Amino acid sequence: MTDMPDGLSFLPLGGTGEIGMNFNLYRLAQDGREHWLAIDCGIGFSGNDTPEAEVLMPDPSFIAERSRNLCGLVITHAHEDHLGAVAHLWPYLQCPVYVTPFAGAVLRRKLYEAGLLNQVPINVVLPESRFNVGPFDLQFIAVTHSVAEAQAIALRTPHGLIVHTGDWKLDENPLVGPKTDLETFERLGKEGVLAMVGDSTNVMKEGRSESEADVRVGLTELIAGLTGRVAVTCFASNVARVESIAKAALASNREVMIVGRSLRNLETAARECGYFTDLPPFLTEQDARDIEDDNLLMIITGSQGEARSALSRIAGDTHPHISLGEGDTVIYSSRVIPGNEQAVMGVQDNLSRRGVRVLTDRDGKVHTSGHATGGDVRVLYDLVKPKYSIPTHGEWRHLTAHAALAREAGAEPILLEDGDILNLSPGEVRIVDTAPTGRLALDGGRLLPMTGGVLAARRKMLFNGIVLASFAVDDEGYVIGNPKISAPGLLEVDDPETMRIREEFADAIDEIPDELREDDLLFRDAARTALRRALGRKLQKRPLVDVHLLRV
After folding, report:
1. What is the distance between the alpha carbons of residues 107 and 200, in angstroms, rounded to a whole number?
2. 16: which DSSP letter?
3. Which of 26, 217, 371, 414 lies at a CB distance of 3.0 to 4.6 Å from 202, suitable for a disulfide?
4. Is the CB of residue 161 less than 8 Å from the CB of residue 192?
5. Do domains 212-359 and 453-551 have the same CATH topology?
6. 93-128, pLDDT tens digit by residue?
């Protein structure tokens, strides 16, 4: 990479070819120096293919090695898949962070919890401002999305103008925040745009986006006809949706309670930044027993079936303060992120088992996407007229659908995956190199590589189980007493198969040659082989095997 000529290039390290983990880099080389700019740094959630992990994030190793040349990290908006990894990955990046006021309020809480608040240089940039990060001349452009203060970015460079859309949609009545600034996009188009790097999540939906105003009407009508306790679950960062739910509740003489830490953090950040000014402070879950059922509406986290979320615990009747049952209703004011279907269905099933009525967007106008439809995307291409289109933020089917729309609009699409280094200038616009990529899993307070030994072992244990053997030997290496075999999640202690394995293992240890018994390492390796042999083929699995040797 270092021997590339001066110029401009683009490198996605997360979010291109997948949903979530958005992490994009631009490289500007001039006067013999290399300058990098990062845009967004988000998390992803584990799906059915990664049960050994819950929260994922992109591996920053490539840019961490070049952190001295990283001018800054710019956050387009306050969704988890765009800023949720900052508190975990910033120690690798060590650069200034640029945010709007609302994204800054959300980020500060995350940094405080991570003990980094006083270390990270945060620069608050007003929406629709023009500012510099190193040699990058940047301009925020207001766009509508399902979070306050979402911004697209125009990057002006000596090699051309790049439009990085972030997440956006068209909405004539977004309720919170301004409409997408099509006049500015049109001016950029007249200025001449080399490439547009754009959101692909919802391009497969035809027509134009529906309005948040329609959702507010739909929620108000639906809630007005309900009795008993009503709970609504939505994405915690969607300020407009939380406001819509609250106003729909107040219209039905229901007081509003928020349940879940992320929603409490959202309320604090939103009120700090001047949102929710015409709403009374929300109740907390400790207030639940003081309100009549017909006068209460709860906004609850957990729309994606997250195991430790408030809604999952309520559905499993393990929440310390909230319970729902016969005569109560839960409304899902959200979509299911691909990969979360099974978890969401499990929570809904548990709610139904308790007699709770579950309503989704099939039952009323209770949700609309915050991402641009195919119709929205066509409008933007007609205004921006980029020479090249670079679809990002989506799985491969989303990227290819976006590419087809771009080609129809007269742009030349270039399909990338995470790790592809795209030369934008000078010369031919093409993939010229690849950067190492990967995923890290958040495991408690640790970051572990998904391909590393710890998670590989956990994955094997999940599907094949684990067998542990322990035995004691004397100074000369002869076994004392009987070996112990443990196979949690695979065999019962008194299972005949367990007894067979223990006996065969004991016989096999006795046959280990004397010369191997003197060295604990060699003895343990030989015993491990003996255990595998004793397991045989009857289990039709290849469990993780380990042996504990105690010399007494």
Report:
1. 25
2. B
3. 371
4. yes
5. no
6. 999 999 999 999 999 999 999 999 999 999 999 999
pTM of the predicted structure, to 2 decimals = 0.83
What is each CA distance from 87 to 20, 148, 261, in whole angstroms?
16, 20, 17
**Cis before 426? omega within 30:** yes
Distance, first Cα to last Cα, the chain: 57
User: CATH code for 7-207+369-444?
Assistant: 3.60.15.10
Cα–Cα distance list, 69 to 2, 333, 495 (Å):
12, 43, 61
The class of domain 453-551 in CATH terms is alpha beta
Tell me which DSSP letter residue 491 carries.
Answer: -
* Cα Dmax for the chain: 86
User: Do the Cβ atoms of 245 and 209 come closer than 8 Å?
Assistant: no
Q: What is the enclosing helix (H) or strand (E) of 213?
A: helix 212-224
In angstroms, the CA 20 to CA 273 distance is 26
* pLDDT grade for 460, boundaries at 50, 70 and 90: low
Q: Which of 90, 234, 83, 105 is nearest to 166 (CA)?
A: 83
Tens of pLDDT, residues 309-325: 899 999 999 998 899 99
Residue type, 336: V
Q: How far apart are CA 147 and CA 140, in angstroms?
A: 15
Residue 519 pLDDT level (bands cut at 50, 70, 90): confident
Q: Is 202 exposed, middle or buried (0-12, 13-18, 19+ CB in 10 A)?
A: buried
CATH of 212-359, one of 3.40.50.10710, 3.30.1490.190, 3.40.50.1580, 3.40.366.10: 3.40.50.10710
- What are the residue ranges spanned by the domains of the chain? 7-207+369-444, 212-359, 453-551
Query: At 386, phi and psi to the nearest 5?
Result: -70, 150
> Token digits for 344?
């969401």
Cα–Cα distance for residue pair 281/172, rounded to 1 Å: 28
Say how far apart CA 308 and CA 301 lie, in whole Å. 10
pLDDT for 537 beyond 90:
no
Instruction: Collect all residues with Cβ–Cβ distance below 8 Å to 2 and sequence separation of at least 6.
Output: 34
Cα separation, 323 vs 223, whole angstroms: 19
- d(CA 76, CA 100) in angstroms, rounded, equals 8
Q: What is the pLDDT of residues 74-95, one digit of tens each?
A: 999 999 999 999 999 999 999 9
- Residues 392 and 403: their CA atoms lie apart, in Å, by 10
* Side chain identity, residue 370: G
Complete DSSP assignment for 37-106: EEE----EE--TT-TT-SEEEE--HHHHTTGGGEEEEE-----HHHHTTHHHHHHHH---EEE-HHHHHH
